[in-house]
């Protein structure tokens, strides 16, 4: 169970026991988001975190914030800084056409990457992300896709176990049970610990 009053006390926001956009905005800000991005993410999270069960427990929220905090440079970047050229020709990401690497580079808090993921998420959400990949750079839409990915990978269950390794590998390797460590696994777990300090 998520202790709303503890979270609000830790964030130094009004303590009313009700988590809403204001509390979530403050959380994104404390994790590094600039004010405008924090406000948009907080508004979107107030809806999508409920839809995908991320607000059900403090551990779920902490692991989501830690993983996305790593992927997005502490919620400062909604589009990957690198060009995306490294993803060119990656059939495992569905990048089969020339230019797909740059076109479908990482976007949103969880850095959705690859034509196949843009197509699948777009079809699920009813948004043509394959034709309009730049839409995931909008913080609110990027957060929606991030929560969908988190749910599709079954990461709430691993967060409930406080399994930062599985959450890291689910996000970065596309498989929570991968034998290969996630890129920057230690930083992901450290950012999750920072989030726990604010939430738990």
Automatic annotation (TrEMBL):
Gene Ontology MF annotations: chitinase activity
Domain Glycoside hydrolase family 19 catalytic, chain residue ranges per copy: 69-150
Disordered: annotated segments: 93-115
Pfam families attached to this UniProt entry: Glyco_hydro_19
Any Gene Ontology biological process: chitin catabolic process
PANTHER family listed in its UniProt record: FAMILY PROTEIN, PUTATIVE-RELATED, GLYCOSYL HYDROLASE FAMILY 19 DOMAIN-CONTAINING PROTEIN HI_1415
Protein name (database record): Glycoside hydrolase family 19 catalytic domain-containing protein
Organism: Brevundimonas mediterranea
Lineage, broadest ranks: Bacteria, Pseudomonadati, Pseudomonadota, Alphaproteobacteria, Caulobacterales
């Amino acid at each position: 169970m998520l202790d709303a009053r503890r979270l609000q006390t830790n964030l130094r926001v009004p303590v009313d026991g009700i988590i809403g956009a204001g509390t979530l905005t403050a959380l994104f800000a404390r994790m590094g988001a600039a004010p405008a991005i924090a406000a948009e993410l907080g508004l979107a999270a107030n809806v999508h975190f409920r839809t995908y069960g991320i607000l059900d427990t403090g551990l779920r929220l902490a692991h989501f914030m830690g993983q996305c905090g790593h992927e997005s440079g502490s919620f400062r970047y909604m589009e990957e800084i690198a060009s995306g050229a490294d993803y060119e020709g990656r059939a495992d990401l569905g990048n089969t056409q020339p230019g797909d690497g740059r076109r479908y580079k990482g976007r949103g808090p969880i850095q959705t990457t690859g034509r196949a993921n843009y197509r699948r998420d777009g079809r699920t959400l009813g948004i043509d992300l394959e034709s309009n990949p730049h839409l995931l750079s909008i913080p609110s839409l990027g957060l929606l896709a991030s929560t969908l990915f988190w749910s599709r990978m079954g990461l709430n269950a691993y967060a409930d176990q406080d399994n930062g390794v599985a959450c890291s590998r689910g996000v970065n390797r596309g498989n929570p049970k991968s034998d290969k460590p996630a890129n920057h696994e230690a930083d992901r777990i450290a950012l999750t610990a920072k989030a726990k300090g604010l939430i738990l």
